[in-house]
């Protein structure tokens, strides 16, 4: 179900420079098989219907392309990645190109051949987000409850409207119906057997 509010926007409860934490990222892992939500355009189309007077003028859209940020990343990263391929369906309607990703055989093969540690790392990412955004994190994360934004950008003479998931915002951010001011945060985890493998400054 789509909503146009901030109920799923999380706030960091730890400072960005925090270095020492003790989180057990395996808690609850046995109860949930993490699967990323499908990259459907439904939520963006829902938003467009609510704002059609703003984005559909003179019987055409005010933008040229609609997609998820991940779709654009797939296209751009193919300049440097010779292993992964991609399959993207495009529908052109009323002057706009709607981009939707379909899994390729290569991607499915890589997913099916994931090692146990690679599968567990997917869960760790969701669990880590819960720890740093909640005083009382739930035992099982809820990866389906996501907060995303719609963004407009230009590429040459083309206008892009794309959506992306927002992991969290800083503690002093203020996002509500009356005020929208703050900083969004992208949360990433990495796996290493030793601290030196992380190649971070002490």
TrEMBL record:
Keyword RNA-binding attached: yes
GO cellular component terms attached to this protein's record: cytosol; nucleus
InterPro entries: RAI1 (IPR013961), RAI1-like_fam (IPR039039)
Cofactor: a divalent metal cation
UniProt subcellular location: Nucleus
This protein's record includes keyword Ribosomal protein: no
GO MF assignments: metal ion binding; mRNA 5'-diphosphatase activity; nuclease activity; nucleotide binding; RNA binding
Keywords: Hydrolase, Metal-binding, Nuclease, Nucleotide-binding, Nucleus, RNA-binding
EC number: 3.6.1.-
Record's function text: Decapping enzyme for NAD-capped RNAs: specifically hydrolyzes the nicotinamide adenine dinucleotide (NAD) cap from a subset of RNAs by removing the entire NAD moiety from the 5'-end of an NAD-capped RNA.
Record PANTHER family: DECAPPING AND EXORIBONUCLEASE PROTEIN, DOM-3 RELATED
Family classification: Belongs to the DXO/Dom3Z family.
Name of this chain's protein: Decapping nuclease
């Amino acid at each position: 179900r789509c909503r146009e509010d901030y109920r799923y926007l999380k706030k960091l409860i730890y400072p960005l420079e925090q270095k020492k934490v003790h989180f057990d990222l395996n808690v609850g892992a046995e109860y949930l098989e993490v699967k990323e939500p499908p990259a459907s355009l439904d939520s963006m189309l829902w938003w467009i219907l609510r704002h059609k007077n703003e984005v559909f003028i003179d019987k055409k859209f005010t933008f040229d392309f609609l997609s998820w940020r991940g779709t654009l990343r797939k296209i751009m990263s193919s300049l440097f990645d010779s292993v992964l391929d991609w399959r993207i369906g495009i529908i052109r309607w009323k002057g706009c190109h709607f981009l939707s990703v379909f899994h390729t055989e290569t991607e499915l093969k890589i997913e099916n051949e994931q090692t146990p540690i690679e599968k567990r790392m997917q869960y760790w990412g969701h669990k880590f987000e819960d720890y740093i955004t909640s005083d009382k994190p739930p035992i099982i994360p809820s990866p389906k409850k996501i907060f995303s934004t719609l963004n407009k950008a230009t590429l040459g003479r083309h206008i892009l409207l794309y959506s992306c998931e927002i992991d969290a915002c800083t503690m002093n951010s203020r996002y509500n119906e009356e005020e929208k001011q703050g900083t969004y945060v992208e949360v990433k985890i990495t796996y290493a057997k030793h601290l030196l493998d992380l190649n971070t400054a002490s």
